[in-house]
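Case study B.
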Amino acid sequence: MIGRKHCLLLIILMNLYIKKFINQASYEEIVYFLRADTIILIKQIILFVFLLAVPFLANYFLQVSFPEVFENTILFPLLALLASAYFLTIWLVFFLAFIDYYLDFWIVTNDRIINVSQHLFSRTISELDLYKIQDVTVEAKGMLATMFNYGNVYIQTAGARQRFVFENIPNPRVVSKKIMELAEVDSKYHTGGGSSPQK
Amino acid sequence: MSISIFLIVYCVFLAVFVIFSLFAIYHLAAFVPPSSIAFFTTYVFLAGVALILFVSWAELQGVDWTQTLSFVNNTYESLY
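Model:
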């Protein structure tokens, strides 16, 4: 019961956050809140576990083949410090990869697309009006992308920013189809060829 | 030159590590949508760092950092 209440509270807080973040207009409706597919994070975790195993394998190899290294009063501290630096580095890289995954997102509304891109020393927030969209392309490269149904969606515009990319999102075909539909409705509204009941 | 030079290089690395970590934690705290994820991941990250540093410190307990570093002769002789 507490878990459900907690989840509900988080959903409400999340919705409030998105509304405030995008400065949502009264007619605007949030259609998608997208992040890269979870498989991207799982791939990073697998890589991290592999990198974590390397020093242990090296340690085993040294103990079997060159046990004298551990008796050496100069090599041992050097190797221990190198191992420590290695573990700290991969731990930090994994943490940064998680932040990059978690803070990179796209919000699609019935009026615009907002792209939030996070890097270590920078954060970019860009916006694109749906009526400016000229073409939407889907790309699913590789066996994993096909198996787990994730891929890139490229949005071509006539504006200064030529291409908008949703990277490794789940269900890219469904998303691209929906964006094309939304762009068509918005375009009709902006050219005066149709009416949008929301605006 | 004593082997404490290794420690100095390691401390420089730690300083860079701390700067990058602070940037990462700041980004997570400042920009993450409301959830317990930010707190949890920061906690796990800091716990991991503490564990690595503790194990490193424990491993290096008995090291005499005043030993002279002589690359060719000492290392070779002590190995063989």
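Chain B has a mean pLDDT of 84. The remaining cases will be described in the next quarterly update.
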